[in-house]
Amino acid sequence: MNSYRGDGFVCKICNCEQARVVAHTAQCRDCGVLLYWPYPPSDSELIESGKGKSYSTETSRRWYAKSADRNHNNFTEMASIGMLGLPRVTDVNVLDFGGGGGQFACVCRSLFPGSQVYITDISDEALLPEWAPMNRQIPFAEFQSDDTRFDRIFMNDVFEHLSDPVTVLRDLTAKLRPGGSIFVDTPRHFWLYPLTRQLLQGLHRKLLQGTVSLAHLQIWSERSFRMAVANAGLQVRWYRTLSEFTMPPSYYLDNMKVVNPVVRAAGSAFYKTARFTAMNKIQAVLVPTAAAAPDR
Questions:
Q1: Among 4, 66, 137, 175, which one has the highest count of C-beta atoms within 10 angstroms of its own C-beta?
Q2: Residue spans of beta strands (DSSP E) within the chain
Q3: pLDDT tens profile 246-284
Q4: What per-residue string of b and e applies to 1-24 under the rule 16 or more CB within 10 Å gives b?
């Protein structure tokens, strides 16, 4: 399980040809990104086949019924970071890329009344009627040709879903106004993965089952994340790792198909202490390379 091999693998981030292959995943030997393997088709082909991330209005509503309070707190912090340096009354165009139900607009516009929040998502129907009035929706099929430009672009739990994340970053960069930036919040490969791989291989496979899928294609290392950003012609202006969850512990344990009550209890205990011990997310503010200053 711990040996590296090729098996036709070529990392889509760094082009390395060796990876540690376990179950349906491959971890690149060079940049460290953890990927769904073998690579699936494109995002649009996944959605058309019914195997990718596509949310109906009702599915979106059920999701937010469980996650809305956590998302509200997370979005408040993200908006404050991503809009840093802008006066509260600034007229600013904001894009919520992959925005799903549209809750982010409620938070963003309450903090920055002068903001106009646009939303686009591969699942157009995921935008909830309750939050639609706070958003200007750009249908996903029309997004590439739409000429709207943005001061701030937010990608919350989106970067890991993309089959070609570098190309998407390039496309979004072309839609920035001068002085604009992109905020990314995405899962991070942290110590629980190598620990379970070495000591608890059965649990490790369950962890992979619950966190890497056709709808969740990569988990980032810092090295792989920075390489993807650089390959897209961007630079990290601000970077941090943190502990962040959008659902209660039962959701993650169910996804992992953990049924043993002792393991579930241990998982719930881990969840409660995770903000001190598990930096499972990356947050970063990205700017075009020519405009970048060293990150803090």
A1: 175
A2: 19-22, 25-28, 34-36, 92-97, 115-120, 136-137, 150-156, 176-187, 218-219, 234-242, 281-288
A3: 998 998 999 999 999 999 999 999 999 998 899 999 999
A4: eeebeeeebebbbbebebbbbbee
pLDDT (0 to 100) of residue 215: 86
Helix intervals (H) in 114-248? 165-173, 192-199, 201-211, 222-231
Is residue 76 situated within a structural domain? yes
Q: Report the DSSP pairing between strands 34-36 and 25-28.
A: antiparallel
* CATH code, 123: 3.40.50.150
Per residue in 85-122, pLDDT tens? Answer: 777 777 899 999 999 999 999 999 999 999 999 999 99
Residues whose CB is less than 8 angstroms from the CB of residue 178 and which lie 6 or more positions away in sequence, other chains included: none
175: domain range? 42-291
Q: How many domains does the chain have?
A: 1
CA 38 vs. chain centroid, Å, equals 20
Output the pTM of the full model.
Answer: 0.91
